[in-house]
Design goal:
It is a single chain. The protein has an 8-stranded mixed β-sheet, sandwiched between helices. A 5-stranded parallel β-sheet has the order 2-1-3-4-5, with helices on both faces. Strands 6-7 form a two-stranded antiparallel ribbon. The chain starts with a strand and ends with a helix. Strand 6 and strand 7 form a beta hairpin. The protein is 35% helix and 24% strand. 45% of the residues are buried. The chain is α/β, with parallel strands linked by helices. The protein has 2 domains: 172 residues, Flavin prenyltransferase-like (Rossmann fold, 3-Layer(aba) Sandwich); 218 residues, Rossmann fold (3-Layer(aba) Sandwich), CATH 3.40.50. Helix 1 packs parallel to helix 2, helix 3 packs across helix 5 and helix 4 crosses helix 7. It binds cytidine-5'-triphosphate. The site of cytidine-5'-triphosphate has 12 residues, from helix 12 and strand 16.
Protein backbone atom coordinates (compact mmCIF):
# COMPACT_ATOMS: atom_id res chain seq x y z
CA UNK A 1 0.00 0.00 0.00
CA UNK A 2 1.20 3.56 -0.77
CA UNK A 3 1.16 5.37 2.56
CA UNK A 4 2.08 9.01 3.14
CA UNK A 5 3.20 9.90 6.67
CA UNK A 6 3.15 13.63 7.44
CA UNK A 7 5.39 14.58 10.36
CA UNK A 8 4.95 18.00 11.94
CA UNK A 9 6.98 20.01 14.42
CA UNK A 10 6.50 18.38 17.80
CA UNK A 11 8.81 16.43 20.07
CA UNK A 12 6.64 13.33 19.50
CA UNK A 13 8.19 13.19 15.99
CA UNK A 14 10.72 10.75 17.46
CA UNK A 15 7.90 8.24 18.05
CA UNK A 16 6.95 8.46 14.37
CA UNK A 17 10.30 6.93 13.43
CA UNK A 18 8.96 3.73 15.00
CA UNK A 19 5.59 4.25 13.30
CA UNK A 20 7.23 4.47 9.85
CA UNK A 21 9.32 1.42 10.70
CA UNK A 22 6.25 -0.61 11.64
CA UNK A 23 4.59 0.28 8.30
CA UNK A 24 7.74 -0.58 6.31
CA UNK A 25 8.11 -3.88 8.20
CA UNK A 26 4.55 -4.74 7.16
CA UNK A 27 5.59 -4.29 3.52
CA UNK A 28 4.07 -0.88 2.78
CA UNK A 29 5.56 1.74 0.46
CA UNK A 30 5.97 4.63 2.88
CA UNK A 31 6.60 8.25 1.85
CA UNK A 32 7.41 10.65 4.65
CA UNK A 33 6.62 14.36 4.34
CA UNK A 34 8.19 16.25 7.21
CA UNK A 35 7.25 19.91 7.64
CA UNK A 36 10.31 22.18 7.62
CA UNK A 37 9.80 22.86 11.35
CA UNK A 38 9.78 19.16 12.19
CA UNK A 39 13.30 18.79 10.80
CA UNK A 40 14.53 20.47 13.98
CA UNK A 41 13.45 17.29 15.77
CA UNK A 42 14.21 14.50 13.26
CA UNK A 43 16.29 15.06 10.11
CA UNK A 44 15.77 14.05 6.48
CA UNK A 45 18.47 11.38 6.64
CA UNK A 46 16.60 9.44 9.31
CA UNK A 47 13.34 9.54 7.35
CA UNK A 48 15.01 8.41 4.11
CA UNK A 49 16.84 5.57 5.84
CA UNK A 50 13.78 4.34 7.73
CA UNK A 51 11.23 4.76 4.92
CA UNK A 52 13.65 3.64 2.17
CA UNK A 53 12.21 6.36 -0.10
CA UNK A 54 13.46 9.85 -1.04
CA UNK A 55 12.16 12.55 1.28
CA UNK A 56 11.68 16.25 0.50
CA UNK A 57 9.87 19.02 2.31
CA UNK A 58 9.46 21.73 -0.27
CA UNK A 59 6.86 22.12 -3.02
CA UNK A 60 9.76 23.25 -5.24
CA UNK A 61 11.58 19.89 -5.14
CA UNK A 62 11.08 17.34 -7.91
CA UNK A 63 8.84 19.78 -9.81
CA UNK A 64 9.09 17.77 -13.04
CA UNK A 65 7.00 15.06 -11.39
CA UNK A 66 4.56 17.58 -9.93
CA UNK A 67 5.47 16.25 -6.51
CA UNK A 68 3.31 18.80 -4.65
CA UNK A 69 0.19 16.88 -5.69
CA UNK A 70 1.61 13.56 -6.93
CA UNK A 71 2.11 12.07 -3.48
CA UNK A 72 -1.45 12.92 -2.41
CA UNK A 73 -2.89 11.54 -5.65
CA UNK A 74 -0.98 8.26 -5.30
CA UNK A 75 -1.71 7.74 -1.60
CA UNK A 76 -3.97 4.92 -0.38
CA UNK A 77 -3.71 6.35 3.12
CA UNK A 78 -2.33 9.51 4.76
CA UNK A 79 -1.24 9.55 8.40
CA UNK A 80 -0.27 12.82 10.11
CA UNK A 81 1.71 12.01 13.26
CA UNK A 82 2.42 13.97 15.31
CA UNK A 83 -0.11 16.63 14.33
CA UNK A 84 0.49 19.94 16.11
CA UNK A 85 -2.30 22.42 16.90
CA UNK A 86 -0.89 24.58 14.09
CA UNK A 87 -1.10 21.74 11.55
CA UNK A 88 -4.66 20.90 12.60
CA UNK A 89 -5.60 24.57 12.16
CA UNK A 90 -3.87 24.63 8.76
CA UNK A 91 -5.70 21.48 7.65
CA UNK A 92 -9.03 22.99 8.71
CA UNK A 93 -8.34 26.15 6.73
CA UNK A 94 -7.04 24.17 3.75
CA UNK A 95 -3.65 25.88 3.78
CA UNK A 96 -1.25 24.82 1.04
CA UNK A 97 1.83 26.49 2.48
CA UNK A 98 4.10 23.44 2.39
CA UNK A 99 4.36 20.01 0.75
CA UNK A 100 2.24 18.35 3.45
CA UNK A 101 -0.47 21.01 2.99
CA UNK A 102 -0.62 20.55 -0.79
CA UNK A 103 -0.60 16.76 -0.39
CA UNK A 104 -3.52 16.85 2.04
CA UNK A 105 -5.50 19.02 -0.39
CA UNK A 106 -4.68 16.75 -3.33
CA UNK A 107 -5.59 13.45 -1.73
CA UNK A 108 -8.88 11.58 -1.68
CA UNK A 109 -7.42 8.83 0.53
CA UNK A 110 -8.48 8.34 4.17
CA UNK A 111 -6.61 10.70 6.51
CA UNK A 112 -5.65 9.68 10.05
CA UNK A 113 -4.42 12.33 12.47
CA UNK A 114 -2.54 11.68 15.73
CA UNK A 115 -2.48 14.96 17.65
CA UNK A 116 0.30 15.87 20.08
CA UNK A 117 0.26 19.09 22.07
CA UNK A 118 -0.11 20.46 25.55
CA UNK A 119 -3.42 19.90 27.28
CA UNK A 120 -4.35 23.60 27.23
CA UNK A 121 -3.81 23.75 23.45
CA UNK A 122 -5.84 20.56 22.89
CA UNK A 123 -8.70 21.91 25.01
CA UNK A 124 -8.65 25.40 23.46
CA UNK A 125 -11.98 26.17 21.74
CA UNK A 126 -10.12 26.90 18.47
CA UNK A 127 -8.59 23.40 18.43
CA UNK A 128 -11.87 21.80 19.54
CA UNK A 129 -13.72 23.51 16.67
CA UNK A 130 -11.01 22.58 14.14
CA UNK A 131 -11.09 18.92 15.21
CA UNK A 132 -14.89 18.87 14.95
CA UNK A 133 -14.73 20.31 11.41
CA UNK A 134 -12.09 17.82 10.30
CA UNK A 135 -14.08 14.92 11.79
CA UNK A 136 -17.12 16.10 9.83
CA UNK A 137 -14.98 15.90 6.70
CA UNK A 138 -14.11 12.30 7.53
CA UNK A 139 -10.69 12.73 9.11
CA UNK A 140 -10.09 10.04 11.74
CA UNK A 141 -8.40 11.09 14.99
CA UNK A 142 -6.34 8.65 17.07
CA UNK A 143 -5.67 10.03 20.54
CA UNK A 144 -4.31 12.14 22.04
CA UNK A 145 -3.55 9.89 24.99
CA UNK A 146 -3.60 10.99 28.60
CA UNK A 147 -0.28 11.00 30.43
CA UNK A 148 2.97 12.82 31.18
CA UNK A 149 3.85 15.62 28.71
CA UNK A 150 7.24 17.07 27.84
CA UNK A 151 7.01 20.08 30.17
CA UNK A 152 6.63 17.83 33.23
CA UNK A 153 2.87 18.43 33.18
CA UNK A 154 0.34 15.71 32.60
CA UNK A 155 -3.02 15.34 30.84
CA UNK A 156 -4.53 14.63 27.41
CA UNK A 157 -2.05 15.65 24.70
CA UNK A 158 0.46 12.80 24.33
CA UNK A 159 0.67 11.30 20.88
CA UNK A 160 -0.83 7.79 20.91
CA UNK A 161 1.59 4.89 20.67
CA UNK A 162 2.71 4.05 17.09
CA UNK A 163 1.17 0.54 17.29
CA UNK A 164 -2.23 2.01 18.12
CA UNK A 165 -2.04 4.54 15.27
CA UNK A 166 -0.96 1.87 12.76
CA UNK A 167 -3.74 -0.50 13.84
CA UNK A 168 -6.42 2.21 13.63
CA UNK A 169 -5.12 3.46 10.27
CA UNK A 170 -4.87 0.05 8.59
CA UNK A 171 -8.25 -0.87 10.03
CA UNK A 172 -9.80 1.92 7.97
CA UNK A 173 -8.67 0.23 4.77
CA UNK A 174 -9.48 -3.35 5.69
CA UNK A 175 -11.63 -3.33 8.80
CA UNK A 176 -10.83 -6.10 11.28
CA UNK A 177 -13.02 -9.13 10.79
CA UNK A 178 -16.15 -8.93 12.88
CA UNK A 179 -15.87 -12.53 14.05
CA UNK A 180 -16.86 -11.59 17.61
CA UNK A 181 -19.99 -9.63 16.61
CA UNK A 182 -22.89 -10.32 18.96
CA UNK A 183 -20.66 -11.85 21.66
CA UNK A 184 -20.15 -10.57 25.19
CA UNK A 185 -16.60 -10.85 26.42
CA UNK A 186 -15.37 -10.43 30.03
CA UNK A 187 -11.68 -9.53 30.44
CA UNK A 188 -9.74 -8.86 33.65
CA UNK A 189 -6.49 -6.92 33.71
CA UNK A 190 -3.93 -5.25 35.97
CA UNK A 191 -2.59 -6.33 39.33
CA UNK A 192 -4.69 -6.67 42.47
CA UNK A 193 -3.74 -4.80 45.64
CA UNK A 194 -4.30 -6.47 48.99
CA UNK A 195 -4.35 -3.89 51.79
CA UNK A 196 -2.33 -4.21 55.00
CA UNK A 197 -3.57 -0.93 56.44
CA UNK A 198 -5.11 2.25 54.94
CA UNK A 199 -1.80 3.24 53.30
CA UNK A 200 0.00 -0.02 52.44
CA UNK A 201 -0.74 -2.98 50.23
CA UNK A 202 0.72 -6.17 48.76
CA UNK A 203 0.83 -5.80 44.98
CA UNK A 204 2.61 -6.95 41.85
CA UNK A 205 4.28 -5.48 38.78
CA UNK A 206 1.53 -6.12 36.22
CA UNK A 207 0.96 -3.03 34.02
CA UNK A 208 -2.43 -4.14 32.68
CA UNK A 209 -1.36 -3.36 29.10
CA UNK A 210 -1.85 -6.84 27.63
CA UNK A 211 -5.35 -7.16 29.12
CA UNK A 212 -6.34 -3.72 27.82
CA UNK A 213 -5.15 -4.75 24.33
CA UNK A 214 -7.13 -8.01 24.58
CA UNK A 215 -10.24 -5.95 25.41
CA UNK A 216 -9.56 -3.40 22.64
CA UNK A 217 -9.08 -6.12 20.03
CA UNK A 218 -12.33 -7.86 21.08
CA UNK A 219 -14.17 -4.55 20.66
CA UNK A 220 -12.59 -4.00 17.22
CA UNK A 221 -13.88 -7.43 16.21
CA UNK A 222 -17.42 -6.53 17.19
CA UNK A 223 -17.76 -7.86 20.77
CA UNK A 224 -19.36 -6.06 23.69
CA UNK A 225 -16.67 -6.03 26.36
CA UNK A 226 -16.67 -5.79 30.14
CA UNK A 227 -13.15 -4.92 31.27
CA UNK A 228 -12.50 -5.44 34.97
CA UNK A 229 -9.38 -3.40 35.75
CA UNK A 230 -7.34 -3.78 38.92
CA UNK A 231 -4.33 -1.48 39.33
CA UNK A 232 -2.93 -0.48 35.90
CA UNK A 233 -0.12 1.81 34.73
CA UNK A 234 -0.94 5.36 33.56
CA UNK A 235 -2.20 5.53 30.00
CA UNK A 236 -2.86 1.79 29.65
CA UNK A 237 -6.63 2.20 29.47
CA UNK A 238 -6.26 4.66 26.55
CA UNK A 239 -6.43 1.56 24.35
CA UNK A 240 -10.13 1.16 25.26
CA UNK A 241 -11.19 4.66 26.30
CA UNK A 242 -12.43 5.64 22.83
CA UNK A 243 -14.48 2.46 22.37
CA UNK A 244 -18.18 2.63 23.17
CA UNK A 245 -18.25 -1.19 23.18
CA UNK A 246 -16.05 -1.43 26.30
CA UNK A 247 -17.39 -0.91 29.83
CA UNK A 248 -14.61 -0.64 32.39
CA UNK A 249 -15.13 -1.57 36.05
CA UNK A 250 -12.35 -0.59 38.47
CA UNK A 251 -11.48 -2.90 41.35
CA UNK A 252 -8.71 -3.11 43.91
CA UNK A 253 -8.53 -6.50 45.64
CA UNK A 254 -8.73 -10.10 44.43
CA UNK A 255 -12.07 -10.45 46.23
CA UNK A 256 -13.50 -7.41 44.39
CA UNK A 257 -12.12 -8.68 41.09
CA UNK A 258 -13.73 -12.07 41.79
CA UNK A 259 -17.15 -10.49 42.38
CA UNK A 260 -16.92 -8.28 39.26
CA UNK A 261 -15.74 -11.12 37.00
CA UNK A 262 -18.34 -13.58 38.33
CA UNK A 263 -20.97 -10.96 37.64
CA UNK A 264 -19.68 -10.30 34.10
CA UNK A 265 -19.18 -14.01 33.37
CA UNK A 266 -22.88 -14.70 34.03
CA UNK A 267 -23.68 -13.30 30.57
CA UNK A 268 -20.30 -13.69 28.85
CA UNK A 269 -19.55 -15.96 25.91
CA UNK A 270 -15.81 -15.70 26.51
CA UNK A 271 -13.99 -15.04 29.79
CA UNK A 272 -10.32 -14.01 29.64
CA UNK A 273 -8.45 -13.66 32.93
CA UNK A 274 -5.36 -11.59 32.17
CA UNK A 275 -5.15 -9.98 35.63
CA UNK A 276 -2.32 -10.83 37.99
CA UNK A 277 -4.35 -11.88 40.99
CA UNK A 278 -2.77 -12.07 44.45
CA UNK A 279 -2.88 -15.63 45.77
CA UNK A 280 -2.86 -14.37 49.37
CA UNK A 281 -4.18 -11.47 51.42
CA UNK A 282 -3.43 -10.30 54.94
CA UNK A 283 -5.36 -12.22 57.60
CA UNK A 284 -6.00 -8.95 59.43
CA UNK A 285 -6.24 -5.53 57.82
CA UNK A 286 -5.55 -2.75 60.30
CA UNK A 287 -8.08 0.11 60.35
CA UNK A 288 -5.35 2.55 61.29
CA UNK A 289 -1.80 2.92 60.01
CA UNK A 290 0.64 0.32 61.35
CA UNK A 291 3.26 2.31 63.28
CA UNK A 292 6.72 1.28 64.46
CA UNK A 293 6.02 2.79 67.87
CA UNK A 294 3.25 0.20 68.34
CA UNK A 295 5.93 -2.52 68.05
CA UNK A 296 8.04 -3.93 65.20
CA UNK A 297 6.23 -5.69 62.35
CA UNK A 298 8.43 -8.58 61.26
CA UNK A 299 5.88 -10.92 59.77
CA UNK A 300 2.44 -10.76 58.19
CA UNK A 301 -0.01 -13.61 58.46
CA UNK A 302 -1.54 -14.39 55.08
CA UNK A 303 -4.64 -16.32 54.11
CA UNK A 304 -5.28 -17.73 50.61
CA UNK A 305 -7.55 -15.98 48.13
CA UNK A 306 -10.00 -17.99 46.05
CA UNK A 307 -8.73 -19.07 42.65
CA UNK A 308 -11.11 -16.97 40.57
CA UNK A 309 -10.19 -18.52 37.23
CA UNK A 310 -10.63 -22.10 38.48
CA UNK A 311 -14.00 -21.09 39.94
CA UNK A 312 -15.15 -19.48 36.68
CA UNK A 313 -13.98 -22.52 34.68
CA UNK A 314 -15.77 -24.94 37.02
CA UNK A 315 -19.00 -22.92 36.76
CA UNK A 316 -18.82 -22.15 33.04
CA UNK A 317 -22.08 -21.88 31.12
CA UNK A 318 -22.82 -24.01 28.07
CA UNK A 319 -20.84 -22.71 25.11
CA UNK A 320 -18.71 -20.41 27.25
CA UNK A 321 -14.96 -20.35 26.62
CA UNK A 322 -12.66 -19.68 29.58
CA UNK A 323 -9.09 -18.51 28.97
CA UNK A 324 -6.30 -18.02 31.52
CA UNK A 325 -2.95 -16.27 31.38
CA UNK A 326 0.22 -17.33 33.14
CA UNK A 327 3.33 -15.21 33.55
CA UNK A 328 6.15 -17.62 34.32
CA UNK A 329 9.84 -17.12 35.06
CA UNK A 330 12.19 -19.10 32.85
CA UNK A 331 13.29 -21.62 35.50
CA UNK A 332 12.40 -25.18 34.46
CA UNK A 333 10.19 -26.19 31.57
CA UNK A 334 7.85 -23.27 30.89
CA UNK A 335 5.50 -25.18 28.60
CA UNK A 336 5.26 -28.21 30.83
CA UNK A 337 4.33 -25.96 33.75
CA UNK A 338 1.76 -24.20 31.53
CA UNK A 339 0.20 -27.55 30.57
CA UNK A 340 -0.15 -28.57 34.21
CA UNK A 341 -1.60 -25.16 35.10
CA UNK A 342 -4.17 -25.37 32.27
CA UNK A 343 -5.35 -28.73 33.55
CA UNK A 344 -5.37 -27.67 37.18
CA UNK A 345 -7.46 -24.60 36.37
CA UNK A 346 -9.73 -26.49 33.95
CA UNK A 347 -9.58 -23.78 31.28
CA UNK A 348 -9.97 -24.16 27.51
CA UNK A 349 -6.82 -22.20 26.67
CA UNK A 350 -3.88 -20.96 28.71
CA UNK A 351 -1.70 -18.17 27.33
CA UNK A 352 1.80 -18.34 28.78
CA UNK A 353 4.49 -15.69 28.64
CA UNK A 354 7.92 -15.47 30.16
CA UNK A 355 8.64 -12.77 32.70
CA UNK A 356 11.73 -11.78 34.64
CA UNK A 357 13.20 -8.87 36.52
CA UNK A 358 13.56 -6.91 33.30
CA UNK A 359 11.20 -8.56 30.82
CA UNK A 360 7.47 -8.89 30.29
CA UNK A 361 6.10 -6.29 32.69
CA UNK A 362 5.39 -2.76 31.54
CA UNK A 363 6.86 -3.10 28.06
CA UNK A 364 4.80 -2.68 24.90
CA UNK A 365 6.00 -6.06 23.60
CA UNK A 366 5.23 -9.62 24.57
CA UNK A 367 6.04 -13.17 23.52
CA UNK A 368 3.41 -15.82 24.22
CA UNK A 369 2.43 -19.41 23.50
CA UNK A 370 -1.19 -20.56 23.68
CA UNK A 371 -1.72 -24.05 25.13
CA UNK A 372 -4.91 -25.84 24.03
CA UNK A 373 -7.00 -28.46 25.79
CA UNK A 374 -4.89 -31.41 24.64
CA UNK A 375 -1.76 -29.68 25.89
CA UNK A 376 -0.59 -28.78 22.37
CA UNK A 377 0.65 -25.28 21.53
CA UNK A 378 -2.11 -23.98 19.26
CA UNK A 379 -0.59 -20.53 18.59
CA UNK A 380 2.53 -18.50 19.24
CA UNK A 381 3.06 -14.76 18.93
CA UNK A 382 5.81 -12.25 19.46
CA UNK A 383 5.58 -8.51 18.94
CA UNK A 384 3.51 -5.57 20.16
CA UNK A 385 0.86 -6.38 22.76
CA UNK A 386 -1.69 -5.22 20.14
CA UNK A 387 -0.42 -7.85 17.68
CA UNK A 388 -0.31 -10.51 20.41
CA UNK A 389 -3.94 -9.72 21.31
CA UNK A 390 -4.97 -10.40 17.69
CA UNK A 391 -3.26 -13.81 17.72
CA UNK A 392 -4.87 -14.72 21.06
CA UNK A 393 -8.33 -13.90 19.67
CA UNK A 394 -7.59 -15.94 16.52
CA UNK A 395 -6.78 -18.89 18.82
CA UNK A 396 -9.94 -18.37 20.88
CA UNK A 397 -12.22 -18.16 17.82
CA UNK A 398 -10.53 -21.25 16.32
CA UNK A 399 -11.06 -23.17 19.58
CA UNK A 400 -14.73 -22.12 19.68
CA UNK A 401 -15.25 -23.13 16.03
CA UNK A 402 -13.58 -26.50 16.58
CA UNK A 403 -15.51 -27.75 19.54
N1 LIG B 1 -5.79 -16.42 38.91
C1 LIG B 1 -7.03 -16.29 39.50
N2 LIG B 1 -7.15 -16.27 40.88
C2 LIG B 1 -6.06 -16.37 41.66
C3 LIG B 1 -4.78 -16.51 41.05
C4 LIG B 1 -4.69 -16.52 39.67
O1 LIG B 1 -8.03 -16.21 38.80
N3 LIG B 1 -6.20 -16.34 42.97
C5 LIG B 1 -5.73 -16.49 37.44
C6 LIG B 1 -4.94 -15.40 36.74
O2 LIG B 1 -5.79 -14.33 36.38
C7 LIG B 1 -4.39 -16.09 35.51
C8 LIG B 1 -4.23 -17.52 35.97
O3 LIG B 1 -5.06 -17.68 37.12
O4 LIG B 1 -5.32 -16.10 34.46
C9 LIG B 1 -2.84 -17.95 36.31
O5 LIG B 1 -2.32 -17.11 37.30
P1 LIG B 1 -1.02 -17.54 38.07
O6 LIG B 1 -0.71 -16.50 39.11
O7 LIG B 1 0.03 -17.91 37.09
O8 LIG B 1 -1.58 -18.89 38.75
P2 LIG B 1 -1.43 -19.46 40.17
O9 LIG B 1 -2.52 -20.43 40.33
O10 LIG B 1 -1.36 -18.34 41.16
O11 LIG B 1 -0.07 -20.23 40.07
P3 LIG B 1 1.37 -19.90 40.71
O12 LIG B 1 1.45 -20.78 41.87
O13 LIG B 1 2.29 -20.28 39.58
O14 LIG B 1 1.40 -18.44 41.04
Amino acid sequence: MFIVVGVTGGIAAYKSVHLVRLLVQQGHDVHVIPTPDSLRFIGLTTWEAISRNPVTTSVHDDVARVRHVALGQSADLVIVAPATANTIAGMTAGLASDLLGTTLLATTAPVVVAPAMHTEMWRHPATTANVATLRERGVVFVGPADGPLTGGDSGPGRMSEPEEIVTAALDLLSPASHDLAGLHVAVSTGGTREPLDPVRFLGNRSSGRQGAEIAAEAARRGATVTLVAASVDAGVLDAVSASAAVTTRHVETAAELGVAMTDAAASADVVVMVAAVADYRAADVSDSKLRKEDGPLTSIELVPNDDILAGLAAGRRDGQTVVGFAAETADGDLLERARRKRERKGVDLLVVNEVGWDSGFGSGENTVAVVGDDGAVVAEASGSKTAVAAVVWDAITAARAGR
